[in-house]
């Protein structure tokens, strides 16, 4: 579906040219779930912004195989419009494309899938952090993206809500099959969610690990623990 070849990106910081990414090669198969894990400042968000088309790389090329994908983005903060209720936040991007009845049908389906049916008319200030992130996820999914990009969307949630949202995301992915790239600094989260984990350190890929464990995954499982150890070893001791 999408391929990055030798991608590099630099920023000017206090007069110095700093490499945010270099030598990035990455292939995203249609319907795959890829997690990108690494320390803060290792280039994860820059990579996601390049994939989203928000910034351009300085070097390398992006190859699209087939039609250009529709892209949805979910950020760490829900970024809901505070003057719109839940239903209208979800429907925000649809009004240029669909009639009212079609919009209502799509929004109703997403409200059901994300467990927000009882909160359709609630305002953002009435929502918990987890509920607000469900709205943000529904707002991205309602556009039927081929590529869903997620930038540490559960980082600010408590452990219980985060685990619930992780399970919901896997269920939605299995049901709708978008291609997902999920950025996180949490190795456990990367292993629980991704089919493939990309390990990023100091702007370059230092490892890739396919997670051959069936869903739903257990954070206390022996196989999961082994994957976490292998990934942490590479991130702590990159070649």
From TrEMBL:
<dbReference type="InterPro" id="IPR050166">
    <property type="entry name" value="ABC_transporter_ATP-bind"/>
</dbReference>
<keyword id="KW-0067">ATP-binding</keyword>
<feature type="domain" description="ABC transporter">
    <location>
        <begin position="2"/>
        <end position="227"/>
    </location>
</feature>
<dbReference type="InterPro" id="IPR017871">
    <property type="entry name" value="ABC_transporter-like_CS"/>
</dbReference>
<dbReference type="GO" id="GO:0016887">
    <property type="term" value="F:ATP hydrolysis activity"/>
</dbReference>
<dbReference type="InterPro" id="IPR027417">
    <property type="entry name" value="P-loop_NTPase"/>
</dbReference>
<keyword id="KW-0547">Nucleotide-binding</keyword>
<dbReference type="InterPro" id="IPR003439">
    <property type="entry name" value="ABC_transporter-like_ATP-bd"/>
</dbReference>
<dbReference type="InterPro" id="IPR003593">
    <property type="entry name" value="AAA+_ATPase"/>
</dbReference>
<comment type="similarity">
    <text>Belongs to the ABC transporter superfamily.</text>
</comment>
<dbReference type="Pfam" id="PF00005">
    <property type="entry name" value="ABC_tran"/>
</dbReference>
<dbReference type="GO" id="GO:0005524">
    <property type="term" value="F:ATP binding"/>
</dbReference>
<keyword id="KW-0813">Transport</keyword>
<protein>
    <submittedName>
        <fullName>Nitrate ABC transporter ATP-binding protein</fullName>
    </submittedName>
</protein>
């Amino acid at each position: 579906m999408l391929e990055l070849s030798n991608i590099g990106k630099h920023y000017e910081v206090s007069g110095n040219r700093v490499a945010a990414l270099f030598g990035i090669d990455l292939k995203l198969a249609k319907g795959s779930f890829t997690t990108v894990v690494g320390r803060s400042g290792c280039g994860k968000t820059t990579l996601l912004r390049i994939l989203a088309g928000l910034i351009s790389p300085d070097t390398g090329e992006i190859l699209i195989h087939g039609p250009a994908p529709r892209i949805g983005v979910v950020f760490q903060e829900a970024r809901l419009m505070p003057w719109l209720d839940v239903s209208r936040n979800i429907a925000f991007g649809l009004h240029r494309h669909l009639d009212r009845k079609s919009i209502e049908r799509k929004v109703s389906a997403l409200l059901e899938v994300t467990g927000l049916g009882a909160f359709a008319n609630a305002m953002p200030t009435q929502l918990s952090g987890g509920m607000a992130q469900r709205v943000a996820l529904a707002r991205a999914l309602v556009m039927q993206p081929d590529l869903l990009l997620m930038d540490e969307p559960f980082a600010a949630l408590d452990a219980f809500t985060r685990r619930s949202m992780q399970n919901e995301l896997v269920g939605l992915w299995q049901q709708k099959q978008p291609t997902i790239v999920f950025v996180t600094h949490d190795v456990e989260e990367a292993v629980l969610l991704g089919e493939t984990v990309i390990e990023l350190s100091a702007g370059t890929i230092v490892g890739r690990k396919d997670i051959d464990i069936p869903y739903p995954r257990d954070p206390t499982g022996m196989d999961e623990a082994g994957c976490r150890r292998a990934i942490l070893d590479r991130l702590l001791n990159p070649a």
